[in-house]
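Memo to structure team: turn this sequence into structure tokens by end of day. - J.P.
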Amino acid sequence: MTNLSDPLEFTRGPAWRNRLALAPLTNKQSHPDGTLSDTEIEWLLARARHGFGMVMTAAAYVAQSGKAWTGQLGVSDDAHLPGLERLASGIRDAGAASIVQLQHGGARASSDASGKELVGPFADETGARPLTTDEVQQTVADFASAAARAEQAGFDGVQLHGAHGYLLCQFLDARNRREDGYGGDLDGRARIIRETITAVREATSPTFHVGLRLSAERFGLVPDEMVLLAEQLMGEGQLDHLDMSLWDITKLPEGGDDDSPLLVDRFVELHRGGTRLGIAGKVTSGPTAVSALATGADFVDIGRAAIADQRVAERILADDTYPGPAFPVSRQELRDNCVGEPFVEYFATGWPQLVAS
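Reply from structure team:
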């Protein structure tokens, strides 16, 4: 029986001291130029100091055109390095593994934030312009350059954001009928992901950790295809982890009946090769974390509970009956847990049921 406190080893990169990972959480605390603020660094270091096995940044844009919101972290320019170096050093000193999540917003980017036109794999309701083939290949190169920059800054690895309707996920959308090899069937739509993984591997050292986050459904995805792709990618040996964003680890597949297996079951039963499997979705307490790991996953992501309680990981590891923070929380409770004012406002506005008025 695997325990939450058990270390987790990987083919590449350092072992994690336990099975609890800080989810990549949008927090809008970076400076307008994408450099890390002291507030954002402290928010992440507080979680590293208090027990998480791995601490991951929020989604960091790999190209200016991919910037999706004001206050987003950047890893697209050497000007971002000093803050990234401080963060990586601090996480390492706290004993946690460190990962930068690499992202391009694609059609979900913000022209107001980026100053660039919207681009995506195909024209859609957002008004995004389809990327040319050369631009697709440049995007792959942008991910690789960002990964090399993250390694230069001292991070243990990166996670490619292929979920939540951002650019890599947009290519997986069944509406992607591109005819240049980057659309059509599943192999064509997943081509950019495979090329990005390969490019990142070539741009970084042999011991650098590379993961991928995928959604299982929604965003134009075909769930059966995502199960097949997950198994293929884990079996190909290029990934150190696959992180499935499930929204709720106890949910049925969308459209499934009461007799259907849980959505998580479709992924934990897959052959993984040497790839570790993580799951995310409403893990907010000791009991839910224990249940999540008991599905057969290798590690568990914690999101909103880590926002409200900087000590949630160490509390769960000390007592697996810990009920987690009681929502709604006050704005002052968030501030007391190293959540900066931009993050307080974003969390309170986006999830008003979780923050007391």
